[in-house]
């Protein structure tokens, strides 16, 4: 399990309806799956989506890879990344950017060494609209240390690039489990954006500059 704030990959998370999904049985540690989302439109491609992936687990090693493709998807680039324009189009702060095609690929894994879990993730999102395309790449890595059965400390960093800009964030996480269903947490996140870009931690309003420091504390309740 990983804790902390992830790169702003939620920009490409979508809710899907009218889909079919397949997931295989575990065979020698390997599980594969696929999903297809129907268009719901007269066009055979408008709103269409599909995805497939695989996981592998053996002892302390866990690996996963996935590929997804979406048609006609909206992105909240203004609030999500603090961009004021994208592919030459001005972005309203309360509006969305609609891409004709989005291709999302990622590979990640973790490795357990005693009480330490190392983890890493690499993703690329190709956004195509108006005859132009941009690649949104993210590299993420870190480690979690289980101090006691109830207390965990995590540290990690990610860096992402899009449309000639870069965002980098370092995160330190403290998680204390009161029970299997209830956890207390405290996070500290420091983000630095390249010159001309705006720092914007996911879930937090964009900064007024290219730097942002966020402190979060609260309770996780699992149901």
Automatic annotation (TrEMBL):
Keywords: Cell outer membrane, Ion transport, Membrane, Porin, Signal, Transmembrane, Transmembrane beta strand, Transport. GO terms for molecular function: porin activity. The keyword DNA damage does not apply. CDD domains: gram_neg_porins. InterPro entries: Gram-neg_bact_OMP, Gram_neg_porin_domain, Porin_dom_sf. Pfam families: Porin_4. It is a multi-pass membrane protein. SUPFAM superfamilies: Porins (SSF56935). GO terms for cellular component: cell outer membrane; pore complex. Coiled coil: none annotated. GO terms for biological process: monoatomic ion transport. It is found in: Cell outer membrane. The keyword Secreted does not apply. Residues 17-189 form the Porin domain. It comes from the Bacteria. Homotrimer. This is Porin.
């Amino acid at each position: 399990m990983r804790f902390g704030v992830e790169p702003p990959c939620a920009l490409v998370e979508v809710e899907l309806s009218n889909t079919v999904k397949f997931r295989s049985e575990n065979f020698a540690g390997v599980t594969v799956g696929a999903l297809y989302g129907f268009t719901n439109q007269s066009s055979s491609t408008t709103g269409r989506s599909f995805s497939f992936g695989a996981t592998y687990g053996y002892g302390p090693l866990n690996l996963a890879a996935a590929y997804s493709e979406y048609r006609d998807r909206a992105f909240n680039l203004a609030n999500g990344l603090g961009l004021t324009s994208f592919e030459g189009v001005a972005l309203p702060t309360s509006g969305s950017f609609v891409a004709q095609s989005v291709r999302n690929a990622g590979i990640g894994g973790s490795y357990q060494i005693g009480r330490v879990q190392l983890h890493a993730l690499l993703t690329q999102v190709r956004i195509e609209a108006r005859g132009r395309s941009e690649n949104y790449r993210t590299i993420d890595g870190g480690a979690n240390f289980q101090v006691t059965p109830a207390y965990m400390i995590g540290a990690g960093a990610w860096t992402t690039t899009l449309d000639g800009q870069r965002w980098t964030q370092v995160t330190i996480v403290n998680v204390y489990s009161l029970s299997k269903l209830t956890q207390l947490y405290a996070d500290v996140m420091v983000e630095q954006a390249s010159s001309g870009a705006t720092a914007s931690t996911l879930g937090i309003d964009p900064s007024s500059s290219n730097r942002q420091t966020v402190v979060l504390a609260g309770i996780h309740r699992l149901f």
